[in-house]
């Protein structure tokens, strides 16, 4: 492995070119319109809608603890920009400028572009450990930028910060000649962990584990004493724990556990399974939740890997395996994370080949917090891609033109066989589901709450919140609450306190059943719950707006008058079962 790199002015230039490659790939995939921060009509459902709502409610929220708390969203449950995956660091950075920003403002598109740019930047730095050639570094960076797992995650923008993992690979593989260089690497490691801790918990776990690998290796190299190593480890832990406490990921009474570990896993063949990301290679079977463990290396990277292995077998093998020793902690950590990604039930092409449920049973309460375990293959994925590039560059180190030609061929093949990119559908999405009826303009300052009956708590398994509302209802009324400065009782949180969900829902239904309506609330009523309001008679006024039944207490407001003129709310009970109809 070559560990020297260029030291001229080009060393400062080429990472910027790598960043440009990332932006170009983002634009080629159709990401251009998302760079308009006022453009919401590509993120109207699912994770993007959750993230935008979290940010919009936070920008108007009072400062409080935990940082990023959004009391107007999913009231009275604990809700933060962390639980809405609204990118805590970016949300926190933008909040002081909220008064100058447009009311319809999203940063998801620019964030995604920056993730690809930083991936290109860090990849050029990483490839500089193996070659002095700028073309080879840029071609290798192109394979990192076009890695299918990166753009595949564009639907969950905070998880696209794969450059954090690439940065940790660079820090682990970079040579350290003395204690000063070792401490410099550890300081950068603390910074990367700090950034990860305010981006997404899954990335934090991976980055922290890679940081531990670096710490172990630095100690093995003799640059740190045992005491200094222990202190550095404590500092690493605090660097993660303090932001987690500050952003409310822990310490808020919300359970970190969740069902699904072993379901959202990775298949053992994930690195060669395109799952539709190839025109030429067929998709292999997987179990339903294993899309979370998507790890296709890309057609170009696979062909390059085959070429590298064949060249290694036919062109002589290195005799000094001591070169592997410095990266052994990194290899072990990445492999351990990959095993976690494959989970307690390992499958190959969707078929179970090994079950370790009994072995993992004692630690399942802890693993439950990471139900989407398939994501943990990412460090091993990028280490594998790095290994392929390093092998090709080493094998043809005496014939650099051959290595460059192989890299160029791999990049062209990778680009040509990315149909999902060239279809330019990655950022089309769904329109922002804004309520359009003019009567909503009558919602004035006398109202404080938008109360859905029952609450729409996305992902909750509690029977009390079951409803027949159309998809996206919580987004529509979350948007209304944001625009009118109101509070809503519905939303989408990454983690739920399910007993509390049931308690709050039951209390709301009990209040409605006994006529205890809040004077400053407008109620959006599911059809099955409409009789509870109809039997209140003149105490409420109900009407249909935008297909939703809306009820307000009987007091003189513009909204009440508008509801009187709106189509009346109607409840159509299901016909009773006849003698010929089974119960």
UniProtKB/TrEMBL annotation:
Keywords: Membrane, Transmembrane, Transmembrane helix. Residues 19-417, 439-553 form the DUF6311 domain. It comes from the Bacteria. The chain crosses the membrane at residues 12-32, 111-130, 191-216, 228-250, 294-315, 327-356, 376-394. It holds the Pfam family DUF6311_C. This is Glycosyltransferase RgtA/B/C/D-like domain-containing protein. It comes from Myxococcus fulvus (strain ATCC BAA-855 / HW-1). The lineage of its organism: Bacteria, Pseudomonadati, Myxococcota, Myxococcia, Myxococcales.
């Amino acid at each position: 492995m070559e560990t020297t790199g260029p030291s001229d002015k080009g060393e400062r230039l080429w990472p910027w070119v790598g960043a440009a490659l990332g932006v170009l790939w983002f634009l080629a995939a159709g990401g251009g319109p998302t760079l308009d921060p006022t453009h919401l009509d590509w993120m109207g459902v699912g994770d993007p809608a959750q993230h935008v709502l979290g940010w919009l409610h936070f920008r108007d929220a009072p400062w409080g603890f935990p940082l990023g708390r959004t009391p107007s969203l999913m009231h009275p449950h604990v809700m933060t920009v962390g639980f809405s995956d609204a990118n805590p660091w970016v949300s926190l950075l933008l909040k002081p400028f909220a008064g100058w920003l447009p009311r319809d403002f999203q940063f998801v598109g620019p964030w995604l572009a920056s993730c690809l740019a930083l991936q290109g930047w860090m990849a050029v730095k990483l490839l500089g450990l193996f070659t002095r050639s700028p073309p080879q570094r840029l071609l290798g960076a192109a394979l990192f930028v076009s890695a299918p797992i990166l753009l595949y995650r564009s639907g969950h923008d905070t998880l696209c910060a794969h450059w954090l993992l690439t940065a940790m690979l660079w820090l682990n593989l970079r040579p350290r000649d003395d204690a000063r260089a070792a401490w410099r690497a550890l300081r950068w490691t603390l910074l990367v962990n700090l950034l990860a801790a305010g981006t997404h918990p899954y990335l934090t776990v991976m980055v922290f584990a890679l940081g531990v690998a670096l710490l172990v290796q630095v100690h093995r190299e003799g640059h740190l004493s045992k005491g200094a190593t222990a202190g550095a480890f404590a500092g690493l832990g605090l660097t993660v724990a303090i932001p987690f406490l500050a952003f409310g990921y822990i310490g808020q009474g919300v359970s970190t556990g969740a069902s699904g570990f072993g379901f959202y896993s990775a298949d053992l063949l994930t690195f060669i399974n395109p799952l539709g990301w190839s025109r030429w290679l067929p998709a292999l079977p997987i179990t339903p939740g294993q899309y979370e463990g998507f790890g296709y290396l890309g057609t170009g990277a696979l062909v390059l890997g085959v070429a590298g292995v064949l060249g290694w077998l036919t062109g002589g093998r290195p005799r000094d395996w001591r070169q592997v020793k410095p990266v052994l902690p990194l290899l072990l950590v990445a492999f351990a994370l990959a095993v976690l990604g494959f989970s307690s039930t390992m499958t190959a092409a969707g078929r179970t080949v090994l079950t370790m449920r009994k072995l993992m049973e004692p630690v399942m309460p802890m693993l439950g917090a990471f139900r989407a375990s398939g994501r943990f293959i990412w460090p091993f994925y990028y280490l594998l891609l790095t290994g392929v590039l390093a092998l090709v560059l080493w094998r043809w180190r005496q014939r650099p033109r051959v290595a460059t030609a192989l890299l160029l061929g791999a990049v062209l093949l990778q680009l040509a066989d990315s149909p999902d990119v060239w279809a330019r559908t990655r950022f089309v999405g769904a329109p922002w589901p804004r309520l359009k009826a003019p009567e909503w303009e009558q919602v004035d300052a006398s109202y404080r709450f938008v109360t859905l009956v029952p609450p729409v708590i996305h992902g909750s398994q509690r029977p009390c919140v079951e409803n027949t509302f159309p998809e996206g209802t919580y987004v529509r009324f979350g948007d209304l609450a944001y625009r009118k400065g109101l509070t809503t009782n519905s939303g989408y949180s990454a983690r739920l306190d399910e007993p509390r969900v049931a308690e709050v829902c039951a209390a709301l239904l009990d209040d409605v059943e006994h006529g205890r309506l809040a004077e400053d609330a407008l109620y959006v009523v599911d059809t099955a719950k409409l009789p509870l309001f109809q039997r209140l008679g003149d105490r409420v006024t109900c009407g249909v707006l935008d297909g939703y039944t809306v009820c307000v207490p009987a007091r003189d407001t513009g909204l009440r008058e508008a509801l009187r003129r709106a189509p009346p709310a109607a409840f159509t009970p299901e016909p009773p079962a006849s003698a010929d109809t089974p119960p």
